[in-house]
Amino acid sequence: MALRAALRNKCGLLSQLSSCGSHGRVCVSPVLVTQWRNSSTSSKIKVDFDQSTGVAVMHMQSPPVNSFSLDFLTEFCISMEKLEMDKGCRGLIITSSQPKVFSAGLDILEMYGKSPEHCGEFWKAVQEMWLKLYSSNMVTVAAINGSSPAGGCLMAMTCDYRIMADNPRFSIGLNETQLGIVAPFWFKDTMVNTVGHRTTEISLQLGTLYSPSEALKIGLVDQLVPEDQVLTTATQSVTKWLAIPDHARQITKSMMRKQTIDKLTSSREADIQNFVSFITKDSIQKSLRMYLEMLKKRRG
Ligand code: CO8
């Protein structure tokens, strides 16, 4: 709790600082920027920033499966704000330090057996993660070096470009219906923007998890490479994207994404209320319990 409060205060400070720029670029104290240079480690996220290339690599390091807990999401948002404020940082690669898993998506334990107030706070943090990443001025590349179901897939789709390890054991997709829950409209919109309406319609209803080669075929990921080349290929891709003048690329990105972003920003509170009333229903709590038991059994 203390960690969260501290992180929230920092986040608030950074939000205030970040409000004075146009197109998301900001006026910020050089002291803060200098402190951030090179590398930063919090408990769940490690960021390495290469000043010579202007590219930061964010390593998710929250064992066992990089699930998005409230603390994880808070740390993620703080890291994003810091990077966004640093004019020298133009590109971001997101990857995992965990073997075999990019991210297992939302932490189910944050939605199971929790108070409505907690669920509301959690959902606000999920929204914030998506808003920060989808509207980022940086070139964002997901280096998907493991399985990436549900919220993990959302995070990858929210980046500009996706490179996945070509390992048939890994899977990616929005599998929410398999848990008995429903992906909210902005998850759906992000997938429609990535793979089109028809594919999203089928894949969301069935809760399909795709193998890397299937994901490439439907355009859910852009490139497959051997596992040990995911990060180097991501670095090469960012370099290519950074050859385009920032302002032209950023305005183009904003033009493509603004409508989808505005839809959530104009209805954030209602979306939180919807989530809370849905997730706290007895029937949904029962589905989550069964799913958690299934995960445990599968392990045993
Ligand atoms: N949340 C919490 N704990 C999890 C999660 C999760 N999402 N995923 C796995 N775990 C736990 C497991 O229960 C297990 O715990 P324990 O060690 O206590 O037994 C531990 O992590 C390790 O898991 P596995 O043994 O399964 O690890 P593997 O490496 O074999 O497999 C996978 C990794 C493939 C990621 C696998 O764990 C998996 O499939 N996890 C479930 C992923 C999933 O279905 N996530 C959905 C989350 S919901 C979401 O993101 C969007 C919700 C939108 C809400 C809409 C509501 C209106």
TrEMBL record:
Its EC number is 5.3.3.8. Pathway: Lipid metabolism; fatty acid beta-oxidation. It is an enzyme of class 5 (isomerase). GO terms for cellular component: mitochondrial matrix. One of its GO terms (biological process) is fatty acid beta-oxidation. GO terms for molecular function: delta(3)-delta(2)-enoyl-CoA isomerase activity. InterPro entries: ClpP/crotonase-like_dom_sf (IPR029045), Enoyl-CoA_hyd/isom_CS (IPR018376), Enoyl-CoA_hydra/iso (IPR001753). The keyword Acetylation applies. It is found in: Mitochondrion matrix. The keyword Lipid metabolism applies. It catalyses: (3Z)-octenoyl-CoA = (2E)-octenoyl-CoA; (3Z)-decenoyl-CoA = (2E)-decenoyl-CoA; (3Z)-dodecenoyl-CoA = (2E)-dodecenoyl-CoA; a (3E)-enoyl-CoA = a 4-saturated (2E)-enoyl-CoA. Keywords: Acetylation, Fatty acid metabolism, Isomerase, Lipid metabolism, Mitochondrion, Transit peptide. PROSITE patterns: ENOYL_COA_HYDRATASE. Key enzyme of fatty acid beta-oxidation. Able to isomerize both 3-cis (3Z) and 3-trans (3E) double bonds into the 2-trans (2E) form in a range of enoyl-CoA species, with a preference for (3Z)-enoyl-CoAs over (3E)-enoyl-CoAs. The catalytic efficiency of this enzyme is not affected by the fatty acyl chain length. Homotrimer. Belongs to the enoyl-CoA hydratase/isomerase family. This is Enoyl-CoA delta isomerase 1, mitochondrial. It comes from Channa striata (Snakehead murrel).
